[in-house]
Every structure is written in C-alpha cells, then in structure tokens.
Amino acid sequence: MIHHRKAIGSGAIEVVCGPMFSGKTEELIRRLRLAKIAKQKVQIFKPAVDNRYETECITSHTEQKFACTPIREPKEILEQLIDNTRVIGIDEVQFFSEELVEVCEKLANRGLRVIVAGLDQDYLGQPFGPMPQLLAIADDAAKLKAVCMVCGGEATKSQRLTRETDQVVVGAEKHYEARCRSCFDPELEMSGLKMEAKVTQEGEWKASGGTASK
Fold this sequence. Notes:
Elements (H helix, E strand, L loop, with lengths): L11 E7 L5 H14 L3 E7 L9 E3 L5 E3 L1 E3 L3 H5 L5 E6 L8 H11 L3 E7 L11 H7 L2 E4 L2 E2 L6 E2 L1 E4 L15 E4 L9 H19 L7
Parallel strand pairs: 1-7, 1-8, 2-5, 2-6, 6-7
Antiparallel strand pairs: 3-4, 9-10, 11-12
C-alpha cells in the first residue's frame, strides 16, 4: 500500500460547531493563538450582524477576544485577503449565506488553513445556514457540547427564551440557553407553563405578605 504524505502548506477546512455556550469561539481563538505562536499570518472575519460585543473583535462568552474584520458577504474575505496569510478564522458562520462554502473551498485549495466556528442548529433544532455543507466538506470537525440549563446533562440544542420567530435573532444569555434533547422545547410550550407557574407563585407570595408556602 502506498501512503501519500500530506504536502507542506496544503490547505484544510476545520469546523468547530455546537450549541450556544459550548465554547466554540473559545476553541477558535485557541487555535488562532497557536497559529500566531507558530509565526503564521492570521486573518479573522465575522458577520457584521453579530454586534453583541465589540464590533471589531470576536469575543467568547467568557470575554476572550481576538481582533477581526466584520464583513457582510463571504466574497469580502477573498477581496481582503493578504498575500502572506496562512490561516483564516471565521466566526458565527451560520449568519452567512451558502456562498461561504465556495469561498472556504477556494481558500483551502490555495493552500490556506481555514477554521470556521458556529451553530450547527437553529432555535428549532434545524440545520443552520451553510453549516451542513461546511461539515460535509470539512477535513476536520469538532462538535462541542454545553451543559443543559434544566437538568445539567450534555446539551446539544440552543433554547430560545423569547417568542421571536425569525431564524436569526442575535443575543446571548437573555435570549438563549443550552438544553439537552429531552429538555429542548422549541415551541416554548413547557417553558411557557413554567413561566406562568413561576409568576403565579410569586403573585401568591406577594399577596400573602411573603408568608405563602413555596
């Protein structure tokens, strides 16, 4: 059997995905920092729609940061590519169009290392944006898990806590929490009942002067 050695400088597409609060951006930043330690030129991009933290940084929920360039269309990555760049990082890829898949393929075929991170499922638990195609063409993929905020189990879903129905609603703790498959409630049916029960209980407690049993 003939084993072909991987050519030096050959490109690759790496995918880091999972639900909200699973550490996707932290993992992306970790890989980018290692590349910089190795003296590799790094460029980072994110969708301009992601304005939760600083505009020109990718920022994890634990406040780790890495300077980046916000863009609106995937083609801008090719337009802003610097000649000696060896590693490309792209965060929150679910917010981009499927054009991103073609862009990542072009970059990898040029010999660049492309690391993308983002949600694999939307608030209904359905495949999100270009992530399914990116996973299909990836040379390496890491599917991270979070902790379910209801039962403490392994979470693979992003539970939306508001009744907004748009697929893209940018937010953090006030809008989402991580859930396991069993506790995931995309229609907010059980969550609504729990919220109503909580409000009723608090109302009874206040009406009794703070002496009602809980």
